[in-house]
Design a protein that fits this description.
The structure is a single chain. The protein is of the alpha+beta class. Among the domains are: about 10-115, Serine Threonine Protein Phosphatase 5, Tetratricopeptide repeat; about 500-650, 2-Layer Sandwich (Heat Shock Protein 90), CATH 3.30.565.10. Helices cover about 70% and strands about 5% of the residues. Its EC number is 2.7.13.3. One of its GO terms (molecular function) is histidine phosphotransfer kinase activity. This is histidine kinase. Pfam families: HATPase_c, TPR_12, TPR_8.
Length: about 675
């Protein structure tokens, strides 16, 4: 695992890059104008500090100037500060020997002066050196002493540095939960101080801790936040750590190409300012990435690079690491044939599994086709009966024409019956044409898509990492086709045979919960939240099956036009002798022109936010069912503001005191409470 120890030593609240450039220019201008020696030392120290996140070499240059001038002025406090800033520059470049020399020079002076805040900074910096050498036994007491001194001085900035560095020790020891405790204690302090540099480093450290816990998704979220701050600050040094952390996350996730891109970018930035430590660590992760990809030559190259820089920092470990990598490379070459055989065996097993899955889905598809064929057969059978009846009536009319004068009254009555039957036949033909149109266009499309997915899988051309997504697409497509068939059958039955409502007391919340459980997988796939706010004691009086279909269509419609992060909220309230039910979504909304088409006589459908398509019958069926239960349905919406579908149902028990004698009217729901995301 990559270790990131904080590079904050004695930093004031960091400004954004444009402000920092302005500050640097102001410091240079004042330096040219001032004649006060002590003030010049302070300005050189400030310039050294301001360049830490930009160029550590410049930090060293200004630090050396501050040291020379402070020695001439004989000011011990300023001299200690100059030593500290110069040591920080050497540490950032990975020159540990020089960094230690300057840190101890600053510490000896500060121990004489006795300032707890300055002593806290020195103990923190020396602790970093021990931590860099993996000497946790020495580093941890120094960090804790730094924290104690900073607490005594009430220096919150140095407190956050010490807390973060203590977390770094536990991170390196693999105690990730304990490390997170200290990091999360430091982060609020840095945010309160608006310490951008501190916030950035805490986010990187938290990301590394989650990498250690193998929670790479959470780790990536912290690294992405850190990356944005690093770009805002223009800190190449910190961006090196961010990119390396992201590379570690992608490596754990098995996304080797992304891991490689981030690791190479981190290495290039590290080379730009010749940071020995960060170049060494980047070479190490590139070794691991290439090894995971099976490119052992490149892995050996970066391991060699890692050991080259490690020689200058820890010479005694370089030869053993190179020898180990060579053995690993040679062993991998010898085992290559065995690995290929194992891979081929696994591939054959996966093909067998795929064939079994294809067989299951083929059976399901055949059953679906049989159901559709049955619908066609019933429709044709019904049409044949009607045509036969019409033929019989025509023959009867022809026979009775011979007695037209004697039976004029009877013939008139028969003609009226014939007209009625003709109207019914015309209506049924219209329904039949519409039914065939929906099946031909809206139902055939999803079935063809399902067939195409099954064909691709049957050919065995689907990579293993793509199979789960295709399976989810198959399940989702199958569910959409089933819901479309339900709507289609209910609509056809209502149009052909008529229907009657069977109103009974209806527990609304329970019915909504049933539909939410049914639609939750679809909502989860689009990252849409379903929220049931209906009072359990609230009941209406309606046909349960009809209202179940109404709720399912309205909730499904809300999910269809929502994006990731949106919410579909269901609520209800008493309004006079009716119950008003509201299905509100925070989706894309609709224009007034679209609203006028929703509940018209014809079918109307538009594609959802994920390109979903419906039959156009759902809302028309909702209108029929609500009205047959003695209620009304309408919609309120605006583009970009979401939509609220409302319908009323009679109360099962009328209230003694009615809130309003007038018919129910649309009302706007209260705005949902804002959801806060915790880091």
């Amino acid at each position: 695992m990559l270790l990131l120890f904080l590079t904050r030593f004695f930093l004031l609240i960091t400004l954004s890059q444009p402000q920092q450039k302005i500050l640097i220019q102001e410091l240079k201008t004042e330096l040219e104008q001032t004649e006060d020696t002590a003030r010049k030392v302070e300005l050189y120290c400030e310039l050294s500090k301001a360049h830490k996140s930009i160029n550590p070499k410049t930090t060293i240059a200004y630090g050396n100037k501050a040291v020379d001038l402070a020695q001439k002025a004989g000011d011990d406090k300023l001299l200690a500060q100059a030593y500290n800033e110069t040591g920080s520059g050497h540490y950032l470049l990975g020159d540990i020997d020089k960094a230690v020399q300057f840190y101890y020079k600053a510490l000896r002076i500060r121990e004489k002066l006795g300032d707890p805040s300055d002593l806290s900074a020195s103990y923190n910096n020396i602790g970093n050196v021990y931590a860099d050498q993996k000497n946790h036994k020495e580093a941890l007491p120094l960090y804790k002493k730094s924290l104690s001194l900073a607490t005594t001085a009430q220096d919150t900035l140095r407190m956050s540095s010490a807390l973060s560095n203590i977390g770094g020790v536990y991170l390196d020891q693999g105690k990730y939960d304990l490390a997170l405790v200290y990091y999360r204690e430091a982060l609020p302090i840095q945010e309160k101080l608006n310490d951008k540099q501190g916030i950035l480093i805490s986010l990187i450290n938290i990301g590394d801790a989650f990498n250690g816990k193998n929670d790479y998704q959470t780790a990536l979220s912290y690294f992405n936040r850190a990356h944005q701050i690093a770009n805002d600050l223009g800190s190449q040094h910190d961006e090196v750590y961010v990119l390396r952390g992201k590379a570690e996350s992608y490596l754990k996730a098995g996304k080797f190409e992304k891991a490689l891109d981030n690791a190479l970018a981190s290495l290039e930035l590290a080379k730009s300012y010749e940071g020995k430590y960060v170049i060494r660590e980047n070479a190490a992760i590139l070794d691991r990435i290439y090894a995971a990809m099976g490119n052992y030559e490149m892995a050996h190259y970066y391991l060699t690079l890692h050991n080259t820089y490690n020689d200058s920092l820890q010479n005694e470990r370089a030869a053993d690491r190179i020898a180990q990598e060579r053995v690993k490379y040679e062993t991998a070459q010898k085992d290559k044939e065995n690995l290929l055989l194992r891979a081929e065996q696994e591939l054959n097993l996966r093909k067998l599994e795929q064939r079994s899955i294809v067989q299951y889905f083929t059976v399901a598809l055949l059953l679906l086709v049989c159901a559709v064929a049955y619908v066609f057969f019933r429709g044709r059978q019904h049409q044949s009966r009607i045509n036969k009846l019409l033929t019989q009536k025509n023959e009867l009319i022809m026979h009775k024409n011979q007695a037209l004068n004697q039976h004029q009254k009877a013939l008139t009555e028969q003609a009226q019956q014939l007209n009625i039957q003709k109207e019914k036949l015309t209506q049924l033909n219209t329904i039949k044409d519409k039914l065939f149109s929906v099946i031909a266009h809206d139902l055939r499309g999803p079935l063809v898509a399902l067939k195409g997915l099954l064909h691709v899988m049957a050919m065995g051309k689907v990579p293993a990492d793509k199979q789960e997504g295709l399976f989810n697409s198959l399940v989702k497509g199958q569910q959409n086709v089933l819901w479309m068939l339900d709507n289609l059958f209910d609509w056809a039955r209502a149009q052909m045979e008529g229907f009657e409502a069977d109103p009974k007391p209806l527990p609304l919340r329970e019915l909504v919960d049933e539909n939410i459980r049914l639609l939750q997988p679809v909502a989860s796939s689009k990252e849409v939240v379903l929220d049931n706010r209906i009072d359990p004691s609230l009941t209406g009086c309606a046909d349960k099956e009809m209202i179940r279909l109404v709720l399912r269509n309205l909730i499904s419609n809300g999910i269809k036009f929502c994006k990731a992060g949106d919410t579909v909220t269901l609520s209800a309230r008493l309004q006079g002798d009716h119950v008003l039910v509201l299905v509100k979504d925070t989706g894309i909304g609709m224009t007034q022109e679209v609203q006028q088409k929703l509940f018209g006589g014809g079918s109307f459908s538009s594609r959802g936010t994920a390109n979903e398509k419906g039959s156009g019958l759902g809302l028309a069926l909702c209108k029929d069912f609500v009205e047959h239960n003695g209620g009304a349905i309408w919609v309120e919406s605006a583009p970009g503001m979401g939509s609220t579908f409302m319908f009323t149902l009679p109360c099962s028990v009328k209230n003694e005191e009615k809130e309003d004698d007038t018919p129910p009217t649309p009302e706007k729901e209260e705005k949902a409470a804002e959801q806060l995301q915790l880091a």
